[in-house]
Design goal:
It comes from Amycolatopsis camponoti. The protein is built from 11 helices and 9 strands. It is an alpha/beta fold.
Amino acid sequence: MLTDLGLEALWEYRSDYAAPPDFDEFWTSTLAEARDHDLAVALTPVGTPLRTLDVFDVTFAGFGGHPLRAWLRLPRGAEGPLPAIVQFHGYGGSRGSALQELTWASAGYAHLQVDVRGQGGVTPDPVGSGPAYPGHLTRGIESRETYVYRRIFTDAARAVDAVRTLPGVDPARVAVLGNSQGGGIALATAGLVPDVAALHAQAPFLCDFRRASLVGGERPYVELSRYLAEHRDAVPRVFEVLSYFDGVGFASRATAPAWFSAGLMDGIVPPSTVFGAYHVYKGQKRLAAWPYNGHEAGGADDVQAVLEGFRPILHPDGS
């Protein structure tokens, strides 16, 4: 069943989100502070039974100089410089196994799959927080300086910085992508690093927070609504903090060619929140609305369309 507005209403919907006046100043200073730390990129080869790809365990410095982990997959024997894909995973997940997510490297890209700090993987978050609802969405939500997605979005921008330093990677051809939380992180990265080459935001989480808190009936958004049910006097402050992290704000600043997707039966990310970001996106854009899909938002068919769409941008020589 539909979980939100019908398709015609979604095309008409506009978010009432407004960015705070110092949104850009906040993020400029945050990224400048992070970039004071050396990237400290290190690659360790990983032995696998794969015959067509080489895999490396990557470490680089993110927010606060904290070490982040990622997989780097490269097509074996490819002659560089290669275009690169930076991928972020879903909420509470991880970079997974070295043998997973082989599509992008198999298609001829350098593929950096980032392990989001403090979630289900191998990258810790050394920064503590105040009271939070179980999960990650309200961690550090007392202020914009302590909110967990300040660190995560900064890590993501640094991941782009890191992949651009790798031998055999063309720094001008770097795209960002992900599903759910990964799509939201990718969208934020496109807003923070304006010269990324392309974006795929598949059912992006972390957009249009206020509406999501009212119509999102499943986790993770229910974490926010339940936190506010306990902290009734914190509602104005919480949404002031979240205004610095809303995907709608980043979308209005991003200019890379973008592919969005939404499943109209998605109970996790309300489709209207995706449309809210899409409608203000500044760059060339497309949105695939999948009427009978849920949170997978078209799944492999959506990825195939993006592979085809990315090719003329990231492989302009037809290679």
